[in-house]
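REQUEST FORM: STRUCTURE PREDICTION
Request ID: SP-0412
Submitted by: Lab K.M.
Chain count: 1
Length (residues): 170
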Amino acid sequence: MDLSGHDLDSVDRLVQWLYSKRYKLSAYDTEENTTRYFLQLGKLNTIADKYDIVDLKNDIIDQICALYADGEYPPYMPSIKYLYENTTNGSSFRKAVVAWYAWHIDYKWYTLETTREWRGNVPEFAIDLLIELGKNMAFPDRKNPLDSKPSVLYENFAPPTKTSEPTGKS
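STATUS: Completed
RESULT:
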């Protein structure tokens, strides 16, 4: 496993997680720390994605869902920019962040001047968000995935299927 392209703090968090299934992140108390926190999660997710460490990616989704459930602020644009530059289309991390914005913001926010500025900086996020907002308008009874169990956003999640009853025949 070549980790030379990753920063030491992220590698340290990976080692912490490999040995204890926990890792330390910055506080989540100011806008600057919120950005730092999500960048730390994003960088750790980048390593987990590169080496297909699905349990770690799912643990990161648990962290995001817990923050959402606690009513914390969504990630700010610098961390979203990093996320979109370093994750694959359709990743669970992207889905969680898009859901957070799609269910947390009002439509007035989307028309603000500061919002217009980031749309040009992170166009893939703007597209993903518009698609999610459109789905919310088209299907008003849709449920917010962040209000469900985090596992609905997990990598390799397959919804339970109904199994047939055993017939007793061999």
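NOTES: Residues 31-50 form the longest helix (20 residues).
Reviewed by: T.R.
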